[in-house]
Amino acid sequence: MRLIISATKFAILLGIIAGWLVIPLVVAATMPAPELAKVWKSQDDIRAFLVSEKLDGVRARWDGSRLLSRSGLVIDAPEWFTKGFPPQPLEGELWGGYGSFEAVSAAARSNGNDEAWRAIKLYLFDAPTIAGGFSERYQQFVAFSEFTPYLTVIPQRDIADNAELQRWLKEVLARGGEGLMLHRRNALYTSGRSDNLFKLKAVLDDEAQVLAVLPGKGKYQGMMGALLVETATGVQFRLGSGFSDAERANPPAIGSWVTFAYSGLTSKGKPRFARFLRLRSDYQLTHETATIPAANTVTPPINPTTETEPW
């Protein structure tokens, strides 16, 4: 595997500092909506892509002057954290290392908690307003990691075939990583769900909003039995697996978002063998949430089914 690093990286850096390199310095008004990944199923020639590790962080966008969530809400990062960031729209993940998601999420939701930000960096994976395909954009924004210790670039790799891709995925998972991302080399930045950006993970996962807390039966009497949830695409189902007894006694609130794992879809398009992974407390940065009723348990508005109901 060959690490793709521009041979002209130093020249690019000097050019940016000197002002002779022409890179569009676009501000928030012209920053495109975020590009979203599809699931990789070996549906294309892997050689058409550059591949990087998928970091389990909080997605963040730099509009040239402010750090924003995916939906455009301001993330209150300390001034020293963003000092030295270029006046150039950037896409990345706020990440503090393996197993740091909850700490990073808490920092992103805090107001000026300087110490929590000391262990975090913005890991870049794209610069959406630079002209050209992804490989061309990468050759330019790779130099931005020289600007400040809190800004770094996720390395991109050439992968020869699917066997090599799977070997690397196993290495990433073995050290506690989440998966891999595949960027089509010649693709322009495309807002929305894209055929030019894919994710590869050992287990599929997604997010859903809690619509209702359903009462348990048998050994779960008096506790939560399942959550009635709805994905961003409008699919509703019951999520009843993967919860500890403590989580059943104090379930996620109505209106909150949760991450669940699943193994493909049923013929009706519902997640198969869905199981709870965690509460997405960072989703107040990226999604509008419903008003949470006073009652913790409500009568479900529909009667959806799932193939795994443990109660």
From TrEMBL:
Keywords: DNA damage, DNA repair, DNA replication, Ligase
Catalytic activity: ATP + (deoxyribonucleotide)n-3'-hydroxyl + 5'-phospho-(deoxyribonucleotide)m = (deoxyribonucleotide)n+m + AMP + diphosphate
Single Gene Ontology MF annotation: DNA ligase (ATP) activity
Listed name of the protein: DNA ligase-1
Ranges where the ATP-dependent DNA ligase family profile domain occurs: 122-233
NCBIfam families the UniProt entry points to: PRK09125.1
A GO biological process held by the record: DNA recombination
Classification via Pfam families: DNA_ligase_A_M (PF01068), DNA_ligase_OB_2 (PF14743)
Organism: Shewanella fodinae
Cofactor(s) listed in the protein's UniProt record: a divalent metal cation
Keyword flag DNA damage: yes
InterPro entries in the record: DNA_ligase_ATP-dep_cent, DNA_ligase_OB, NA-bd_OB-fold, NAD_dep_DNA_ligaseB
Domain of life: Bacteria
